[in-house]
Fold each of these.
Amino acid sequence: MLDVSRATAEYLAKLLAGHRERLGTRKGTRALGPFKQAVLVLRWFVDGSRLVQLARDNGVATPTAYRYLHEGLTVLADHALDLSTALERAAAAGYTHLNLDGTVIRTDRVAAAGPNKADLWWSGKHKHHGGNVQVIAAPDGWPIWVSAVRPGREHDTTCARAHGLVDALNRLAAALGIPILTDLGYENAGPGFRHPVKKPKGGELTERQRTFNAVIRGVHGVAERANALLKVTFKALRRVSLDPAAITRIARAALVLLQLEHGRTT
């Protein structure tokens, strides 16, 4: 039994039906109706079902199952909030702070040379191939926004700058007094960021710095809930066998599904 509400399946089916209507697809010309296509997409997301199996279960060719999946990913991802809207809603909710954390979504090996001929998608920190996705979360760890994917070899601060996050979050902190809590992966990102103080080389932290670090780590620790919610809920996010570029749509689509299931966007 699929561990997702019927309301979510019906909502996705409605989105797919609207997409078909915009394309001018005539009724009866598709192998699967919108609802069955929605279930196919949800099984891939939630259960991690292989597309070969999904194709067999639905009596369609494997390329057709791939096409249905990618269509579903696009339709869902298009309904994810953009950064500006997500931050506006967070401010309206009266949040005292936001959390920012990066997660590397594992992928099958991808041969792509980066700078200095280094493997572009290899994460030295995690010791596997993957794509870096930045996740903004509410104070309680609820994910409210996910970024596009960047190669796994890039550090969190590099990814955040590439997405315009550093500038946007510093502006938010300056204008509304909403700081961004992070780990040391975002060191020197700007005055709006709050992260632990790094121990100086050959020195020790002061008592005040150690206390500050304990507070920041304690409050920011719930940010790990955001990544866990996405990866635990959706097996598809634990390892992606599609083109790594598809991680952008997969992550955004997963966020939309999570928010639908819980009835919460901010």
Amino acid sequence: MADKQDTIKPIPPNDDGKYFQQIIQFRTDPTTGFYALSCSTDNGLHYEDVITSDGFKFSDKAARKFWPFLKSFVNGISLTKDNKKPSEYPDGFCREVKPLAALGVDLSLANGYGFVDTKTVSIDGTTYARQTCEVVNSEVPTTLVRNGTGDTWFSWHTLQLTS
């Protein structure tokens, strides 16, 4: 015969001698109906799902703790005014926001900016790069593209959209 376990009822923690109990259990998520591994640090009053049918679920507090270790692996969006040479980009993918003037692009936009994606690869000691610039503050969607190698960027070309 299996041992019976008493169901633990939530007890609000307070300063009147009531203790904090940490609970880790599988439970059904009331909003989705799926099973989840959940944790409670307040005697079962509130649960935080840790593993769901979608995978691991991290709280904001947990994300802040491991972000310093992850940020070196993520090339986020940054505002840069310099115009690096193709050989100055690491192999891989980089995303930046740049003023169009810094890119040598003149579209008659005062203070124009673009999302710039740079893809680079080194083959036999030579760096090859492709940049795509999506202008963000123009009435008409405009995308420019250029190639580069070593220390040289070639001219920008406008991609034509057809409907």
Amino acid sequence: MKRALRFVECRQLPLHERISIQSLYPLSKAPLLLSLPSHHHVYVALNRDTPLASIVANDEQLETDHAIRLSQATYGDRHVFRGLLHRLIYVRSRETKYPITYYLQEEDSHNQDKHRIYEAAGFQVFHQTKTYHLPFIPCEKATHTNWTLELVDYSRRADWLTFRNEHCHLLPGAISMTDEQFAREVRQQTLFYSVKWNRQVIGIMKVRLHMYHISIQEMHVDCDETLLREAISFLQQKFFYMFRYIEEAHISATSLQPDLSYTLRRHGAQISSICRYTYILQAPPTPIYSYNNQKTSSKPTLSQRKKLFIRRLLFCSSSRLHR
């Protein structure tokens, strides 16, 4: 049966077709489909009215960083999904005059089929993010007096953002954070901390509170291994007294932060089985040729004339054989 495939952005779909995209996702994993922010796009491939593949694109930092985040990729047909991925990149590259860097986040780390599709589309692994469960310990050391943990509010965001964005490629988020994103995270109850040693900022953290643990979504301490061990020890003791009813922190660290990962393991952190990959692809702009340009360049080039001559020879040869 011949399929009638459509590759569209979900805003182009009527309401019932837009809602049907949810069928591709587990119940709690569906992307936002209604009342979408201007930078949020859900691209979908459909066979008539049936969704076959979907992926979410966030182009909030397209103008500032020439970057687009891709996430929540899912499909029922791998060939259709690969076509959707190529279509998305092709369409977006026709809308710009500069290269676009795509950062694709994949949480299904055990799906080798997805990995092969991404590689075939030109994506490369940028880094891997693992989660470490670090217990809190009420152990005080003399060196802890050199350390302080400072909560950063929106009015003091500038220094925090500068430090974070200088090291953003090492972090799970991979690209820089804007003022607007900082403000949005604050409204969503995200906490931002500066880690200070002898009153100097040498680290930052982005934290979310949960009922039984705290989630340190991003963490970077710019120091040598000895100071890093002191910093982790200080945080274990500090969080123990700050959060009386919470026993551990879930800290995300990437494969580009080997010192942090090693230090966390030395302090008793257990590695979660959940990990995610960030892939990267830089796509050049696709030129759009006008009708006038096509008319002026209608005369075939030398290489085109050679190809045409070879095709005629092959056609004549095959015609003689059939006689």
Amino acid sequence: MEAADFFASAGEKRSPDQRNGRTSLIEITPRGREVFRKVPKARIGEYSEILGSWPEGELSRLEETLEKLNHSLADWEKK
């Protein structure tokens, strides 16, 4: 699903940008906020199901690797 399709289905309000007529300003509606709040909870359930059979050691390595990735991404964004 493309971002435009997602926003349209989730709830958005578009208005023309007064400074640049070629673009639109997008505001998420209350319905859109509701959808965004539900997505992480759904992901946690999916990940629990997918990773449920992984040995504890592999889960620990995954956690360490993801933490390292998050720190690297944060450092990169500061550049």
